[in-house]
Amino acid sequence: MLTLVAALWALMLAGAGPALAHAGLSGSDPADGAVLDSAPKQVTLTFTESVSFLDGSLRVLSPANDRVNPRQAQHADGQANTARVALEGNLAQGTYTVAWRVVSADGHPISGAFTFSIGKPSETTAVVAKTSPDDTAASRLYGFFRYVAYSGLALLVGAAAFVLVCWPGAMEIRPLRRLPAVGWAALVASTVALLLLRGPYEAGGPLSSAFDPSLLGRTLTGRSGIALTARLVLLALAAVFLRQTPVRLGVRLRLVAGAALALGLALTWAAAEHASAGIQVPLAIPVAVLHLVAMAVWLGGLITLSGALRHRGPDSCEIPASAVSRFSALAFAAVVVLVGTGVYQSWRQVGSWAALATTSYGRTLCLKVAAVVLVLCAAALSRRWTARLVGDASPNATEPAAVELEQVRVPQTVGGPSSPEGSGPGGKKVAAARSMPGDGIDIEPPAFDAEKYRRRLRRTVAVEAAVAAAVLVLSTLLTGTQPSRAAATTAPAGQEPAVKVVTVPFDMGTANHRGTVQITLAPGHVGENTVEAVVFTPDGGISSVPELRLALTQRDQGIGPLDAKLKNQKGYWATYDLRLPLAGTWNLDVTIRTTEIDQVTVSTALRITP
Fold it and tell me: Distance between CA atoms of 77 and 83, rounded to whole angstroms?
């Protein structure tokens, strides 16, 4: 088992670098929306972390929807965060579509598409799937079984910890004895399902491809497949552990073996999810493992405690107050670990306070924190009722039955009839009254009502377990959401285009001859920009003009004109270091000299974003 855990650790650390979890596209060559004078020989994509490829991970489609990259994608110059495909020669003019789907280092498939043009933009019939990688039947089922796996881990580890640490006598109660077995079965079933669904989940294929031998073979040799296979091996060892625990293993050996299995199982999650990619990977991995184990001990223990409190067996099998006290201490330690590791993970994945409100990951994390606060409030009440139960059940505590009986003197009429047994003056009943020699009656205080506090404890523990289950759902959602820190470095998709393009017609100086000049700014934001300008003839051909000048003015702020200082690049004009100081609407004045003596100036407006 230790060898298996060591292999998992090596798997997670292998290739870990300063990347960001849940990859995103950070750049491409050609750039999105670029208009090229000549056909490129290849297309290269750069991501925020290392990626792996599927069949057809990178496809370049012509305007007629024909694939023009004959070979599969490869890493560019050995860099694991890139994808490159070579293109066919003699590509026609028009707009080409680049469609990509890769798997990030943390196991999540990502996809997207962009366009570039050769010569000039054109209409295109290329068809690219618009659905999200998580919007397929396979991905939805994969997410469901991922939640089942988390639940199974919590029940297996939490119930086993409750029995081993808090109440060994629970093994005599059949419903509680079954809880670890139920968790084990749920975890085995969900792990097998995840192995089968992993292939269609990554490739975006139909559910029927779950049994495709080629997909399954690739899954078993990938990072996620190795982690899932290791989980099944550890679960086989756990089955042996559960069978041998009651009779053959000593207390200390049981605790050591159980802790090792719990850490190993948690390690299989850290091997294939956010902790395995990003900043500070060597620290993030053990933190993620501790976070998972603490979650399992707390949530699974709550479910077990709730079942024990509701058990209606013989008195000898009712949960003792000492077991409740031990779990209270164990749960408190688990919460401390959860909070500490959760704060670190939040900082690592979010990166800034603003991201809590502006990213999906941040908003989901806020909901999780709110749910955790509710659980802690319920836990505080549970600890209060636990303290009452333990304090009054402790042999060292001052119990009501051990309190010295207070002598209460009740006046009686001389020679009159004695009061009815159990009644006081006026016929009012006196609790636990005893006749004593003399002229007085001894009265015992009311007996401690332990069942009242048990009922209160049952209610608060049930609330804890219910809200903690919601926390588990939110945790599962977070594992499938791009972390805020990674989103901040990903090229915008579907919001602002990667470039700004304007086309301005102008008179070429000959009757009925009007050309156009196309100006491309990349990225079209405040700061440094690349500018390319291409002049087209009326028939769509590229025109070589003696001179082309571009001046930019922002009249609202009184800035400009700024000379772009375009240089002739043998077919188009360009500059690569134009700096724009402010966002807003800029006026572009383009001067085109068509002959030695003829020139024309045309104007247009372009909005520059922050």
Answer: 10
